[in-house]
Amino acid sequence: MPPVAPQTIHLKPSRRLLLIQLAAHLVGGAAVLASSIPGWTAALLLVLVGYSLARQRNAELPTSLILRDAGRFEKVGADSTVTEGVVHPHTMVIAPLVVLLYREKGRIKAMALASDSLSQDDARELRLWLRWRVPAVPPR
């Protein structure tokens, strides 16, 4: 395929994903409280649920993605740090959600992008890029 100019996809925090994560943590906390486990175990599990919620809230999300050829992209952080990644072929794309699996520094990571975290045009560009510019063979 001929080289294509890089495309920039601008991201914003997803309110829908935030609500889903909050609801999941609340259900987890309620399940711990409703269970008949010993008090110290319940307290430990509630601390772990709270820790998980705090980690989710403090996770640093990229502000944009720069899409390049052959499934390569760059994540641009809020402080303008750039990290390169290569898309894994098991990335899931459905209308309301893209679960972007990628290899970064030898490790496979995931990024969930809900439909409300990018504009309609950017969502369309990302889906097309994932379909046509990403190789079917996983990178090594």
Labels describing this entry:
single chain; 7 strands; 7-stranded antiparallel β-sheet; elongated; alpha+beta; 2 domains; 140 residues
Query: Got a strand count?
Result: 7
Strand portion: 25-35%
The tally of domains stands at 2
Distance between the termini: 20 Å
Helix content percent band: 25-40%
| H-E order | EHHEEEEEEH
**Average pLDDT across residues?**
89
Radius of gyration: 18 Å
Largest sheet: 7 strands, antiparallel
- The geometry reads as elongated
Strand-pairing-aware structural class: alpha+beta
Give an overview of the whole structure:
The protein is an alpha+beta fold. The chain folds into two domains: 7-13 and 61-132; 15-58, no CATH class. The chain is 38% helix and 27% strand. Strands 1, 2, 3, 4, 5, 6 and 7 form a seven-stranded antiparallel sheet that branches. α1 runs antiparallel to α2. The longest helix is centred in the N-terminal third of the chain and has 20 residues, at 15-34. The radius of gyration is 18 Å and the shape is elongated. The relative contact order is 0.18.
SSE order and pairing:
Blueprint: E1 7-10, H1 15-34, H2 39-58, E2 64-67, E3 72-76, E4 82-87, E5 92-94, E6 97-104, E7 107-114, H3 120-132
Antiparallel strand pairs: 1-2, 2-3, 3-4, 4-6, 5-6, 6-7
Helix pairs in contact: 1-2
